[in-house]
Amino acid sequence: MTAIAADLPTSYLTEEHTIASWLLTKDHKRIALLFFASITFFFFIGGIGAMLIRLQLLSPYGLLLQPDMYNRMFTMHGIVMVWFFLIPSIPATLGNFLIPLMIGAHDLAFPRLNLGSWYVFNLSGLFLLYTLFVGGVDTGWTFYTPYSTLFANGHVIGAAVAVFVNGFSSIMTGLNFVVTIHRLRAPGMTWMRLPLFVWAIYAVSIVMLLATPVLAMTLALVALERFMGVGVFDPALGGDPLLFQHMFWFYSHPAVYIMILPAMGVASELIACYARRPVFGYRGMAYAIMGIAVISFFVWAHHMFTAGISVYAAVVFSLMTFFVAVPSAIKVFNWTATLHKGRISFDAPMIYGLGFVGLFTIGGLTGLMLATLPVDVHVHDTYFVIAHFHYIMVGGTVSAFFGGLHFWWPKITGRRYPEMWARGAAILTFLGFNLTFFPQFILGYLGMMRRYYAYPPAFQEWNVLSSAGASILAVAYALPLFYLGWSLLWGERASANPWGATGLEWSTSSPPPKENFARTPVVKAAPYQYNPEDGSFVSQDGVAHA
Amino acid sequence: MQWLPFWPPDASNTAASIDKIFIGELSLSLVILCFVFGMMIVFGVRYRRNSAADRSNLVKKTWHWELTWTTGSLAVFLALFVWGANMYLWLYEPPRHPDLEIYVVAKQWMWKAEHPGGQREINEVHLPVDKVVRLLLTSEDVIHDFFVPAFRVKHDVLPGQYQTLWFKPTETGRFRLECAQYCGTQHAHMIGDIVVQSQADYARWLSQQGVHKSLAQQGEQLFRSFGCSGCHGANSTVHAPSLTGLYGRVVHLQDGTTTTADERYLRDCILLGASHIQVAGYPPIMPSFAGQIGEDDLMKLVAYIQSLSRQQQASP
Among residues B177, B193, B212, which one ends one of the domains? Predict the structure, then answer.
């Protein structure tokens, strides 16, 4: 191992230093870092929106922002966080960096397409920033018609174009991953030897490929109606407003799984490595990922239980929603069982990973309540729903994203991060998150509506608690920016495999050379061959480590 | 559930039922949460890195465990589904013969309610306690949503069609009415009060509104002024269907299908005319009134046509 590292003088980071070598790179690792810069920028833009929302809701009377401004703020927060952070978050950064490394390939199947995806993403980001600068949009991230087509006075088309273009970045990245995982696996890397992270990215890529075009069609129809008065969704023009909701959620519900599946993959890697134990029920976990991806296409109308769809349709979609909860439950139980007889250490990535499981479980259980038709009739469009999906998408996905970022930080940068700072941030994330969003479940059941810039004074205490939590969460999310930044320059040099993990990505140097591996690795072992009895492990290239 | 802290007021038959299923799921979730968190803590402590706990005989065959929790979850989920679906069908299927029917028109950003007696109010809905109330909802612009947290019921209010919602208030008092579907700038102020009164107080309130004509009577006037009576009237020579007893009946259409003459059907007939809805056995001469009759007047016409059936039911 050290011999391999020694005869590789340069890494992908030091190979070339020109700006062009970054902006025109075809190296998946560099593109991952480019994506990382883009989504970090948008994460903090969306975060500013969140902070303004929480500041506004400190007071029941709506003192900070005017109604129109507040409406634009939560719309911006939603659009930015969903399409410009959460959807690309894990796939375009960690996925981009790790998929070829994990399957023993030298790059993705289509390196130029990969770079193109980043440019398309930034182009869509420019459209979005333009929309924000000229005044924003006030439809909510869901663009419900006929409000968005005939009544909204914001820049709906600008935002729709941004999201439309953004979708192509998703499709390009998804396509690239599907082909790569099918075609470029190293000898011996059978499907049942794939790390669960690869399974998760594979499932997500398929969902991206199949669902995103529907979003593009939907937004094109919105533009057609708003621009040219073609009656599609507005009943005054002979259209059907519910058609929009069906089409929008046909994309946007699977999109929720685009956000959470990669997080599940990351959590599986973290928990197995720090529990020093094989993942409990690997096969079941892989099937559960694929099961979730398939069923995710048949649950969309659970966003419409109160919208006026046929009651029998609602019953069918409720049933499908309970079905999609089964594989999620399997995963939670399997992660928990993976801790059994492990040799567990609580490094920062593990704290994030366990935090993910806890928050995902709360989000999942409240999801069951929402799947239950009469309960949804009461809490639909209240803060109960807001809390539920933040538990999944922020508590779940963002925790896993940060966990994965810390876990693979030594591989990506060649440096160790400061462990105590990172543990502090991980614990703060968990606490701040719960303080922010748990009160919102209570508010929701009490009847506090989402998208209200002012609310009854009786709800103020819970809102103050939630805003207090948000300020803690803001610190927890900003902290890594500083200590990870610090570690880039002064962090301890990382060895090839600092955690003693089994994946192929750890068998090459940290940071990896441009071509990933000096010679194509041959895979001889299943993933997660950790032995908790003595802490030894067998990495996937078949090498036994004491 | 009122003894619980942080519980919203519970003021209708629907609220009691929905609270029951919610409490059931809350308890179940608490058990599962305690189990998952408990296991994580127990394993985390017992199998921490430096502990001397026995790690031999790692579970290799996992499938029977997985089968246990897969079938377990599935069974519990199916039970919840059946419980919920049953209740939803009851909740979202309004009774055929409610004690009271209220017509609600939503627009940016207000609620207009009309009582059968012709009493109108804005951002307030007076209701008698212990009577089954059925709402007929429509919107003049975007999608709104009629939500009363104390009753635990909501329903989207769509432009261009009628939606229905029902409940039976069980407590007197003032309860919040909120718009639950984002509808623009003043969405947060599209709120009102549901005023539930004793039946005597409600009757007194109705009589104090200074209204002389019921909704159906106002509809009858419109029926003449829009010229409907020219064809559908009792003495008409035109071959048009009589509307007496039509509401609630099964109608045979020209294409061989049948439909029930509910509010939606009546509304569609008036707005779309014979070009879209062709009743079997009649010439296609009904004109379209789209764009000529506002939502308020439409509801009056519908109320009038409904009243033609109710008189008939009452008279024999």
Answer: B212
